[in-house]
Amino acid sequence: MAQEEKGIWVFAEHRKGELLDVSLELLGEGQGLAQKLGGEVAAILLGHDVEALAKTVACYGARKVYLVEDERLEEYECDAYVRVIAGLVERYRPRVLLAGSTWKACDFLPYVAARMGMAFAANYNRITTGEKGALQLTRPIYGGRLDGVYSLAPDRARSLAVMARPGAIGMGKPEEAGEPKLIRVDPLLNWQSIRTRAVEFIKGDPKKMDISQAEIIVAAGRGIDSAEKLAPVEALADVLGASIAGTRPAVDAGWVSFERQVGQTGKSVSPKLYIACGISGAIQHTAGMKDSERIIAINKDPEAPIFKICDIGIVGDVQEVVPKLVADLRRVRRSGSPDVEKTISHL
Amino acid sequence: MEIIVCIKQVIEPESKLNIDPGTGLIEQRGLSYVLNPNDEFALEEALRIRDKLGQGRVTVLTLGPPRAKDTLVRCLAMGADEAVLIWDEALEGSDVHVTSLVLARAIGLLGYGLVLCGCEAWDDGQGCVGAGVAEGLDIPLITRVSRVELSPDRARATVLRHLERGDQAKVECLLPAVFAIAMRANRPRYPKLRHRLLAPKREIPTWDLKTTGLGEEEVGCLMRLEEVSYPRPRAKKVATPDSSLSPMERLSFFLTGGVTERAANLLDGSTPEAVSKVTEFLIEEGIIQREV
Predict the structure, then answer these.
(1) Facing residues of B169 across strands?
(2) Yes or no: domain B2-218 corresponds to CATH 3.40.50.1000
(3) Nearest in space to B50 (alpha carbons), one of B91, B92, B1
(4) Cα A308 to the center of its chain, rounded Å
(5) Chain A: nearest CA to B246, how far in angstroms?
(6) Residue of B nearest to A334 (CA)
(7) Which DSSP category does B173 fall into?
(8) Nearest chain B Cα to A347, which residue?
(9) Which residues contact A151 (CB under 8 A, 6 or more apart)?
(10) What is the CATH topology of the domain spanning A7-193?
(11) Would you say A221 and A275 are in contact if contact means Cβ atoms under 8 Å apart?
């Protein structure tokens, strides 16, 4: 007789040796669910040399860590991930499997769910229990215009695999935790039978990327004056590998295209670094960029409100300061914009 | 080569969605239906592959009520060679689990060299039927595919897939496989008038559950939509000034929209140190690396 499904699992996803925020958010969420549904929070950790991360997931609430290490798991391969995770599910039978809706989870989680006969939901608002302890969940449907309440068939759907959007839950605080219970699992993979193979990684071109996904943004405002004077700003974006954005006046004047507008009538962005060139900082604009991790502002007017929300401000003309900054950055930096990386090491 | 495209008929995305108080579900009256926007890219990709090969056949397949035939007709007008509708009363209200199961079974009966689908249906936003079909047929799956190239012997394919932040990966894969085609991977063609006029005259077979060889007991849903509701409006963060502030400070608080000020470090742009301080800051933050 199969054992009863109990555990609340979180797929602990990591990039370049660091756990993704969404996985940490989900560990907090998992604790809440474990209180409601019973069971223990566990993390599943796949990769090469990732044991060190077990400590971190424990601090965010995982009591158990299923660790699957193999150097070939470092690169994401749908087939391999599906087999490993489905194998874990089959053996240890979680009740809920949570993952952030990243490109990896969007790929393997529905496949795992289909293989293991788990109910599946791409993003959700709430998981509750209905009559007789059957799981119920509420999730946005019709592009978020409606909420749908789904109930799981108690006899057929023994377990549930769900994804959550990064940032939708909010991070809990890490707590001191002892060593988690580490369960090492052999991937037991026949690598010959993996039918897909990633052969090349192509770095995104910041000039074409959606600005809401950009890591670094160089933005132009009314202070730029004319399309010809955008050149230094573009040079700065090139040297930093940044995306170009603009305020509404810059977009209206046609210097920057509309899909690159930041602010109330444009997009909200929260990059690692936002460099505002010739932007005074009206709230219509700052509403869209105030959550940037670091802000550097360059503006002629020392009284400009943008200087109140920036980490570093330079009072001066963009046309004079930016070329100097570009020259200085080129001096310390090997090359200009990052080239296409012919590596798949951090896939 | 047999290319199967799985499509879905959905409510026109611009329609007004009313809730029927009787059932707690969407009111069906007066709705119009279209081909799921994401599926258009899958169909277009299939047609392009076929046209490039100069041979092969594109079959569109859907599970849905009889009205879904209209959508299949549109797919035929766009250039699909065949269309099959699967419908049975036992499939009413079927979830993604059942849908994938039935589609996979039907695809097995039709014969396939490649299966394409859209990334997700706009109505339920699940994006998992492609995976379910891949599992049902036990073939590989690649999602978010933006370009497909077949090897000359058609035994394998090289595809480009979107990852995140504009990054892409080139993936090699054995065929047959399921590819979920990314949004805007191509520009779907607009059917010619002649084809639109001819398409409704084509015969579209309807398969019931028995044709697929599945029994009613095998198509039990895992999940059922019980009711829909309008989402609660998202809580807006309202900046409330501290009552201990002076009226002047409170006013200025409102005028700034409660944006938190940062410890701004103002530098004079006319001095050479200004620029080097920014460079130092960027190095400290790990944005750029100093040349060694």
Answers:
(1) A201, B161
(2) no
(3) B1
(4) 29
(5) 20
(6) B291
(7) E
(8) B169
(9) A130, A134, A135, A136, B223, B224, B226
(10) Rossmann fold (3.40.50)
(11) no
For B148-166, the pLDDT digits (tens) are: 999 999 999 999 999 887 8
Q: Tell me which DSSP letter residue A284 carries.
A: H
A7-193 and A211-332, same CATH topology? yes
Name the 3-class secondary structure at B219: coil
Torsion angle, alpha carbons of A120, B103, B145, A78, to 10: 50
Q: What is the pLDDT of residue B8?
A: 96
Q: In the structure encoding, which two tokens stand for residue B124, read together?
A: 């339920």
pLDDT in tens, B94-137: 999 999 999 999 999 999 999 999 999 999 999 999 999 999 99
CATH fourth-level superfamily of A211-332: TPP-binding domain (3.40.50.1220)
Pairwise CB contact (< 8 Å): B265 & A311: yes
B169: nearest CB among A200, A216, A333: A200
Radius of gyration of chain B (CA): 27
Chain A residues whose beta carbon lies within 8 Å of the beta carbon of residue B26: 146
pLDDT score for A343: 39
What residues does CATH 3.40.50.620 cover in chain B? 2-218
C-alpha triplet A261, A223, A320: angle, nearest 5°: 120
Given CB atoms, is B278 within the 8 Å cutoff of chain A?
A: yes
Q: Position B45: which residue type?
A: E
| Interface touch A309/B13, C-beta < 8 Å | no
Q: Which ipTM did the prediction report?
A: 0.85
pLDDT at site A346: 40
Q: Mark yes or no for CB contact B290/A146 under 8 Å.
A: no
Selecting from A121, A146, A324 the residue whose C-beta is nearest the C-beta of B229 gives A146
Residue B260's pLDDT is what? 65
Count other C-beta atoms under 10 Å from residue A340's C-beta: 11
| Distance from C-alpha of A191 to C-alpha of A278, rounded to nearest angstrom | 55
**Does A333 contact B13 at a Cβ distance shorter than 8 Å?**
no
Residue B19 DSSP one-character state: B
Does A205 contact B at CB distance below 8 Å? Answer: yes
Is the CB of residue A278 less than 8 Å away from at least one CB of chain B? no
A79, A107, A310 member nearest B262 (Cβ): A310
